[in-house]
Structures are given as C-alpha cells and as structure tokens.
Write a structure and sequence with these properties.
There is one protein chain. By secondary structure, the chain is mostly beta strands. It has 2 helices and 8 strands, in the order βββαβββαββ. A hairpin with a 5-residue loop joins strand 4 and strand 5. The longest helix is centred in the middle third of the chain and has 13 residues. The radius of gyration is 15 Å and the shape is globular. The N terminus is likely disordered.
Length: 182
C-alpha cells in the first residue's frame, strides 16, 4: 500500500494533560517508552519483533526508559541493543499515549527519527532489521495505529496523539494532531 493511500484523518483535539505526563492521573500510572525510526532517502529500517509485547509485527526500535537515563539516551540504547546501530543525533517527532483496555498502566511513547546512523543493521535476540522502500511499508504486519501517524513522520511533521486499544488489534478511540514543537 502506498503511504499516500493511508488514512490521513487528523483530529484537531487537545489531549487531557493527564495523558501527556508521567503522572498518576485519572487513568492510572504511565511508563516511559521510546521508538526510533531510521529513515533514509526512499527507505525506512524496521525490525520484526521476535519475542515479547508486539511479537510478529514490524516496528521501529525502542523500549522502556530505564531509571536514571534520559528519554533520548534510552532511545539510543534501545536502537543499539535491538539493531546494532549507533546514533549521535535523534530528532524528536512524536509523543503518543497508548491505553490498552484492562491494563492499568498507560504507555507514554516518545518517537524519534534519524537519517544518520553508524554501523550495519544486525539481528538481535529481540528484533530482525530489514529495510523497506517507502512505497512498500508493511502496514498490514505493523501496529494498527502506525498507518495513522507514519504519514506525518514521513512528511517530517511533529505530532501528538492518543490511541485506545482493545487487545492488540482493535483501535477503540484515538486523537492525533500536528504540533509545532514536541
């Protein structure tokens, strides 16, 4: 599917502040996560998740931010652990809060992009990296929300959002909007 054929609905909503912070709010506690997308002209590097949460899906590289590390340092660490690549500079492009029905903890995901990495992608215990042409991104084998925000990423736009899932395949509710700064 061409990325130009993807859903481009952008809801201009303001998220409640308790969804955008690491706090104990009405919806419960949140945990910090990172996601890094390596984008080069006409291609993106994705990893097939081999185990754990999201196994069997193509995704960017990332995971939990550890105690004592910054969000960006966590993103760099996860990219290196999962793909063997190192990076000097990341650009923060998105912030999405995920809620999964029946799971009390929200996922507070900070999304980064980079076009300059050091090393060659290598398979890890957790991920199998593969380059995809931008017109061949495997959205059918990715998280359902990716087809909503990926077009913004590819257009170098910044965004904030919220997605509520039933299980791992059904989006019950969402909001997504462009922002000037993230």
């Amino acid at each position: 599917m061409l990325h130009s054929q993807l859903p481009m609905l952008l809801l201009r909503l303001t998220l409640p502040s308790h969804l955008l912070t690491e706090s104990q709010g009405a919806m419960g506690a949140s945990r910090l996560y990172t996601l890094v997308l390596v984008l080069q002209p006409q291609r993106v590097l994705l990893g097939m998740k081999k185990r754990g949460f999201g196994a069997g899906r193509w995704n960017g590289f990332g995971g939990k931010v550890q105690e004592g590390e910054t969000i960006e340092d966590g993103a760099k660490r996860e990219l290196q652990e999962e793909s063997g690549l190192t990076v000097d500079t990341l650009q923060k492009v998105g912030h999405i809060t995920f809620e999964f029905v029946g799971v009390p903890e929200l996922m507070d995901v900070h999304i980064f992009r980079t076009d300059s990495v050091q090393g060659m992608p290598r398979e890890s215990d957790e991920m199998r990296p593969q380059w995809f042409q931008l017109d061949q991104i495997p959205f059918g084998d990715m998280w359902p929300d990716d087809s909503y925000w990926f077009p913004l990423l590819l257009q170098k736009k910044k965004f904030q959002g919220y997605f509520k899932f039933q299980g791992q395949d059904t989006i019950l509710d969402y909001s997504l909007h462009e922002v000037d700064d993230i």
